[in-house]
Fold this sequence. Notes:
Elements: H1 8-20, H2 45-56, H3 64-70, H4 77-86, H5 93-101, H6 113-116, H7 129-146, H8 159-168, H9 173-178, H10 183-188, H11 194-204, H12 210-222, H13 225-241, H14 249-267, H15 270-281, H16 283-318, E1 330-335, H17 340-348, E2 354-359, E3 367-370, E4 376-378, E5 388-392, H18 396-416, H19 418-428, H20 430-441, E6 459-463, H21 467-475, E7 483-484, H22 487-500, E8 510-517, H23 540-551, H24 553-562, E9 572-579, E10 584-587, H25 598-601, H26 603-627, H27 637-643, E11 659-663, H28 665-668, E12 677-681, H29 691-698, H30 700-716, H31 718-721, E13 722-724, E14 729-732, E15 737-740, E16 750-751, E17 769-772, H32 776-785, H33 787-794, E18 799-804, E19 809-814, E20 817-820, H34 821-824
Helix pairs in contact: 1-11, 1-12, 2-16, 4-16, 7-8, 8-14, 11-14, 13-14, 17-26, 22-24, 32-33
Amino acid sequence: MSDVVLSEVGLQELGRQVCKRVAPVWPLPRSIAVNPWWQHRAASIREVAEYEQTHKNVRLLMPASFYQQRWLREIQPEHLVQAAQEQGVQQSAQQLLQALQAMDSAASALPSIAEVMNSGQQRTRTLPWRTEIVHQLSQFCALWVNYPEQFNGADSADALYLAWLDIVRHDRGIELLVGERRVEEELATLPRSSAELWQLIAEEIPLSAPEQLDAWLQVALHDIYGWASVFAQRRWARELEKSENVYDELDQLLAIRVAWELVCWRLSKEPQQQRFVDAYQALGERRAQTVREQEVLWVWQRALELSYQSSLAQQLGQLQPVVASGAPQLQAVFCIDVRSEPMRRALEAQDKGIQTFGFAGFFGLPVDYQVSESLVKPQLPGLLAPQFRVTQKHDAAAQAQRTHSWRAASWHRSLESPAGAYGWVEMSGLAKIWKLLERSLWPKPQARIGSEVIRPREWQITKRGQPSLCERAAAVGERAATEPASDAELAGLAANALRGMGLTENFARQVLIVGHSACVTNNPHAASLDCGACGGQSGEVNARVLVQLFNRAEVRRILAAEHGITIPQTTRFLPALHDTTQQELRVLSTDFGSENSAGIAHADDTKQLQQWLEKASTSAQQEQRQRLAGKPRAAKALQQRAASWAELRPEWGLARNAAIIFAPREATAKGHFDARAFLHTYHAERDPEQAVLTQLMTAPMVVAHWINMQYYGSMTAPQTFGSGNKMLHNVVADGVGVFEGNGGDLRIGLARQSLHDGKDWYHQPLRLTVVIAAPTHAIDKVISEQKVVRELIENEWLYLWQWEPTTGDLQQRNAEGWQAISKLQETQHDLAI
């Protein structure tokens, strides 16, 4: 053991540092993708991979068997040879294959004290200690989140810890389940102060080396990592909104978990204690073994990535920019979501005069949507805080629709709980039989709760106050003051949106602002299929609000006078919605005033527009059906999947995402990216100060990276960052997450059905390739000024390419600088295979 001894204060601080490494996870109704290793980005991905596997057996690389299955399918000999050369591995392809075949991946994580409690014992009638501890703590966390009003002392710094202590001391079932009568006695000796608890741990747990203590705390928190991620998001939200931080649930969660460790230590026997200590003293040997194994696996992972990048580089090198001829007949602004790429191709194919643009699906509007007095939905990325609030005046029809929706929502939530799923059916009797038959025999796609209350009426836009002030005002029965946004502020939002989407001149008579949404039934993770840039919501609200701004006469006047953007009087913007599940594109109704009604001003264009959208939808549907398991031919196959309450794979979401391209659409219009690339419009020549490029590399690029790494982590580390089997999911705490079954830790990330088609993996775990059509000096300027961007690139969390569309030349940026892609791809094919 090391002679270095941490003080009690140092140990508690070490615990806080461990908690800071936990990435946030949003509740199901606002589910957005997150890089599960986001808080580790300051270190290289290889260092993180070594650390995670050595300590917790959490993988950033697929098992050897996966790469063997990809050999001579995706991974070709030239990819493997090039990968080995890049990483300085002096082995032939045949030697690398033999090393892969000889690899033993039966490694395990470092043990917690709770885990060694069952070593050397044959238990058949009792639960393992770790299983019972995780179950008890997880049930408590669900109670805490769902019923906060039931707990006292919320103003205490130890509120969570004290609430747990009061509950667990009265739980007589734990002793029976683990077969140990002294549990109650030991729980009674725990202090009512987390600071005192950390002091006892420092005195009694015989680990003194900081590295060993850090590893042990990581392992302990990992047992309850799902709930740790939930509390990390609650911390994130408080920091983003600058609200008062009375207590930190995440730090207390770790304190509770190590309190259980202390109890287990006191109840453990000497052989069990020795096994625990020995495991942590052998950290050096474990690390060396991990390094040897990962050296080979990183070559294979890089080869898999090269198998995609080589085809992408070839396509980008051969694309010829489209030369526009004449005024555009129609322009459509889509979200950059990979599912938009097939629809954009299909729409552009209808006429040479159709142009499409790619922009983040919230369209630059930092807003939230007040559905009712008690429900507010964010409509922007999780990285940002809303600055404005949008709402609609409600007429009698809207009020009736809202009442119906809330009743449906209450019924739906009651059925989501394990008890309610049986109890409500039994109580409902024959009435429920009819609903079950109706949903089974005549299924209909369903909109998410709240979406159906949106009416074709004018939107009110107000400045959003600090949430803490609003909450305090509501608490004393006062209404928070709202100030309408000025025309100048609205024009500023419109100008930023137009510049961001690259549409500042040469406007068509009709311009579609296309939000997107998924249409699924009986799916707790429905928000993960909606627009991530809109906070896991439908993009309809943002599309409608932005169209209202663009069509407003005073906003147009200010755009021309103060922002240099002149929108012709003949141009009208229309809101549209892309249903990604059914691959349907349609214009939304806008009958709330003649000034904003394209139907009155462009009656002659309406029929042609409808024909284009229908044909584009049909083409995109045919392509989507080919991606589904079984490749269904029926025209209504997508609609049937969207409506089926038993469908596990209504659509593939963003599976197989692999690249994001920032370039003029003219440069990529002839490309076919197979729904694998985010496409964002960007004109470098219009951005001399790199203001837009900075926004793109710090927002859309980071969001795409989060999406990419969520899919990556759900596949490489499914036990930690995947949610398991959809068929076993039970919604917890009114939508905070899901259990797989009836207990255990909260499951986060993507279900296996979102990645696997039942026979083989559909998704490929590839790091994101970022392609930017801009000068290298402009890109370097952003990298030098933005720390997060620099970390992602130089620590190899993603790949960055610079593309010159006119010549097809590509360069890759790494920590050493730029290097031509052609040089990176030079390989010696005569090496032994």
